[in-house]
Each structure stands twice: as structure tokens, then as C-alpha cells.
Amino acid sequence: MQQYTIGRQIAVVARLWRGELDRRLQPCGLSQARFVLLTLLSEASGPLAQNDLAERAGIAGPTLVRQLDQLEAAGLVERRDAPDDRRVKHVRITPNGRDAHGTADTLAVGLRDELTTGLSQVEVTELHTTLVTLLRRLDEIRISDSAK
């Protein structure tokens, strides 16, 4: 039965993490989902096409549009037509968005530190390595399945 508990435990940890981070980000006017988008935009070397942003975030287009509407209304991102194709929207983080992301990132790091209290640095590194391996493997499975 052990093989079935890993997926369930990952799901529960993810749900609880998201809920607690949402609670902590609420005073900033952000959610975990909008924080992820700001993170992806802050790490990008320039504007991202909405489709690329949705793919990187692992969310569907309509869900992304709702989140971007809220971020844009708050002045945290800007959307513009791509210069070579008006059907494509480019998204970039604004200076206010960078500030909000910095505040939110501090809160997220604080939560991570609280969560890993009592674990050694070796254990934290091993956990990170294991999660990266699982993500990579899931991506390989997804790509393999979509090629069939």
C-alpha cells in the first residue's frame, strides 16, 4: 500500500501549502497562483507571450486570462500586442509588480523555512532533488503520452 501514499501525500502537502501561502499573501492582494505568474515574469529575460506563460505555469489559457486581468488591474503586469502578430499578447512585469513580487517572495521563503524547520540542510537538498526528479519524470511521461 506504500506506493499509493506518496501521491496522496504530495497532493495534501501541495493543497495545504497553497492554502497557507494564499492566506499569507492576501494582505498583498496576491494569491499563490498570481505569485507564480509574477515569479515566472520576473525570471524571464523580457516579455512572454501569454501562451508561453500559460505553458510555463501549467494552466489553461482562460485561467491565465483571469489571473492576468487581476494582475493588470492592480498595475503589476502589462499586456501588449506582439509587434509582429497582433493575435499574440505579450506580458511583462511592471516595476510595481517587481516590488510586489519581492514582498511575496519574502513571505514564501518564510513559509518554506517554517515548513523545513527541523530538517538538516542535507535533508532539504535531498527533498529538493527528489521533487525536481519527480517533476522531470512527470514531464517526460506527459510528453510521451501526448506523442502517442
Rg value: 17 Å
**DSSP E strands, number:** 3
Report the structural category: mainly alpha
**Into which percent range does the helicity of residues fall?**
over 70%
Distance N to C terminus: 30 Å
Number of helical elements: 6
How do the strands line up in the largest sheet?
1-3-2
Compressed to H and E, one letter per element, the order equals: HHEHHEEHH
- List segments where confidence is low: pLDDT < 50 over at least 5 consecutive residues: none
| Shape label | globular
Question: What share of the residues does DSSP label as strand, in percent?
Answer: 5-15%
The biggest beta sheet is recorded as: 3 strands, antiparallel
Mean pLDDT: 92
Textual characterization of the structure:
- There is one protein chain.
- With 148 residues, the chain is mainly alpha-helical.
- The chain has helices at residues 2-25, 32-43, 50-57, 61-73, 95-115, 121-146, and strands at residues 48-49, 77-82, 85-93.
- A hairpin with a 2-residue loop joins strand 2 and strand 3.
- Helix 2 (32-43) crosses helix 5.
- The two termini are 30 Å apart.
- The model has no long low-confidence stretch (mean pLDDT 92).
Keyphrases for this structure?
148 residues; mainly alpha; 3-stranded antiparallel sheet; 3 strands; 70% helix
Ordered list of secondary-structure elements with their pairings:
Layout: H1 2-25, H2 32-43, E1 48-49, H3 50-57, H4 61-73, E2 77-82, E3 85-93, H5 95-115, H6 121-146
Antiparallel strand pairs: 1-3, 2-3
Helix pairs in contact: 1-5, 2-5
